[in-house]
Amino acid sequence: MKKRMSLAATLVVFVFLVMVLSVVIGRLCTYFLELIFGSSFLENGFVAFFALLLTSTTIGISITALLSRWMVKPVRNLIEAIEDVAKGDFSVTVKGSNIPELESLASSFNKMVGELSGIEMLRIDFINNFSHEFKTPIVSIKGFAKLLKEGNLTSEEEQEYLDIIIQESQRLVDLSTSVLNLSKVENTEIISEKEVYALDEQIRCAILILEPKWSAKDLSVDIDLESMNIYNNAHLLQQIWINLLDNAIKFTDKGGELQISLRRINSSIQFCLRDNGHGMDEETKQHIFDKFYQGDTSHTTIGNGLGLTVVKKIVTLCNGNIEVESSLGKGSTFTVSLPSGMSLDKRSS
């Protein structure tokens, strides 16, 4: 590999080189002056010193100007790139340098621009998806409300249209609630209002809350929960279990199976939810926690793409981790791990 000097060493070598070249070239200039005007021209010590100083300074400035263009070129390129990014151009990249510090700076800048580009794309997608998710039910409600106002409908049609209006209104309520929950979670830095409570009982309650949904699809639910207490914000953690269960029910076909377990593994708490539903491809797995992202691009499955985003944020706030294992047609497994510092033995409460 090509050996590279640090920025400090480069500057030292640069200054030393300028000094040596200035003195050498300056002395050569005075030597030629002696040859041209004779030795008597420089017999006066003051004149000789002034001539050497003037020529060395002039030459030093010239050499510095020439070499500095090469040294500061990466910095100039970086400044120009920063100006382009400030104008909204996230396609710019900065070339590296033989100086490690400048190479690291260029690499960090390119990485930052890549992240900004991704964030900008997510922002645009967020706005587009948010507008779509809100506009669709509103247009539907407006259209069926007009039909009801016009009249000339059978009793069955009226009931059908009213049911659609109620369903779409609930969809708006759910979306508003999800956006509000996400906003609260994103603005939370430290979890407060912690308490000791039975984690296994909380998960059972979440399963019971969603009983109408999994019963309607005739899903079998295999529950294996180890009794344990936890010290945390009960409301926040409840959103994890509700959203994960709702997501699993949504993407599991009628007559499918859900397996739910809670274990203390080594010094951590591990919640596992496995289904035998549709599963996901690699592209979906990479974006499953993004805002408004839905693997079902046809939107045949009801949802707003915010539930798993909320789950990811809460788990991160808890210093935990969430993993997804899935393949198309073979179902998905979500595993939530919470650090041992959050768990308490039930006997100690």
The computed structural class is alpha+beta
Beta-strand residue fraction: 5-15%
Q: Mean of residue pLDDT?
A: 75
- End-to-end separation in angstroms reads 60 Å
Please report the total strand number as a whole number: 8
Strand count, sense and closure of the main sheet?
5 strands, mixed
Percent range of helical residues: 55-70%
- Low-pLDDT runs of 5+ residues are 297-301, 342-349
Strand order of the largest sheet: 2-4-5-7-6
Quaternary class: single chain
Specify Rg, calculated over alpha carbons.
35 Å
Globular, elongated, flat, extended or rod-shaped: what is the shape? Answer: elongated
Set out the fold topology:
Elements: H1 7-37, H2 45-71, H3 73-86, H4 100-150, H5 155-186, E1 195-198, H6 199-209, H7 211-216, E2 220-225, E3 229-232, H8 234-250, E4 257-265, E5 268-275, H9 282-287, H10 307-317, E6 321-326, E7 332-338, E8 343-344
Helix pairs in contact: 1-2, 3-4, 4-5, 5-10, 6-8, 8-10
Short description:
The chain is of the alpha+beta class.
Question: What does this entry look like structurally?
Answer:
With 349 residues, the protein is α+β, with helices and mostly antiparallel strands. It is 59% helix and 13% strand.
Key words describing this protein structure:
single chain; alpha+beta; 5-stranded mixed sheet; 3-stranded antiparallel sheet
